[in-house]
Write a structure and sequence with these properties.
It contains 7 helices and 9 strands, in the order αβββαβαββαβαβαβα. Pfam families: Radical_SAM (PF04055).
Length: 210
């Protein structure tokens, strides 16, 4: 268990359960193919059965790390920072993002929106999940909507979520990796019939990079 004073700092967003941080190429969505520094924060109770980072779910298995240290590491690599998880909005993102912005970095988030939006963001990628829907006004603030397609019903879910976002939000359908061979043809056909959508692929997996 975390010590009480450490827990207080985590609750305030001054420390975060850091799972990993790495410099790589963004593989998905609008910014695919561009270099970015990823900060993966532990803790998620959304519980997607197909999640490929289930080791991120239990926050207590990831060391509480001071955000000053996280910011200092990020500065060494890139001016574009992607904060992901887990579910990063489990925690208060204001201190971390304010610190990153103070250093002149662009802040991106990848989130299910299952918790209230905190932080200062240059780009919000909303990837909603059926078992814990977005809360608050994040849908209206999202720059891109990325719906993971695991089965045919996910197309219905995607349209429901698209009805919630702003008119300038970019809409993506992305096959869940384990069923990509089955779902890619369906997604391609759907996008051709509904061209407001775009196809997103996990290109980093094809490139065999983190």
């Amino acid at each position: 268990m975390m010590e009480e004073n450490v827990m207080e700092l985590v609750d305030k967003g001054l420390m975060l359960p850091l799972m990993e941080e790495f410099y790589t190429i963004q593989g998905e969505g609008f910014h695919k193919g561009t270099a970015a520094y990823f900060i993966r924060v532990g803790g998620c109770d959304v519980g997607c059965h197909w999640c490929d980072v289930k080791e991120s779910w239990n926050a207590e298995t990831h060391p509480p790390t001071a955000i000053d240290s996280i910011i200092a590491n990020a500065k060494k690599y890139s001016d574009t920072i992607v904060i992901t998880g887990g579910e990063p909005l489990t925690w208060d993102m204001a201190p971390l993002t304010q610190g990153l912005k103070k250093e002149g970095m662009k802040t991106h988030i990848e989130t299910s929106g299952a918790y209230p939006l905190t932080g200062v963001w240059d780009w919000i990628c909303l990837s909603p999940k059926k078992n814990k829907l977005p809360v608050g006004d994040i849908a209206k603030k999202a720059d891109e909507l990325k719906v993971i397609v695991y089965n045919k019903h996910d197309f219905i879910f995607a349209e429901e979520q698209a009805a919630e976002v702003g008119e300038n939000c970019i809409l993506y359908l992305q096959p869940e990796w384990s069923v990509r061979d089955k779902m890619v043809p369906l997604i391609v056909d759907y996008v051709m019939k509904n061209p407001k959508w775009k196809v997103s692929l996990q290109t980093h997996k094809y490139l065999n990079i983190p």
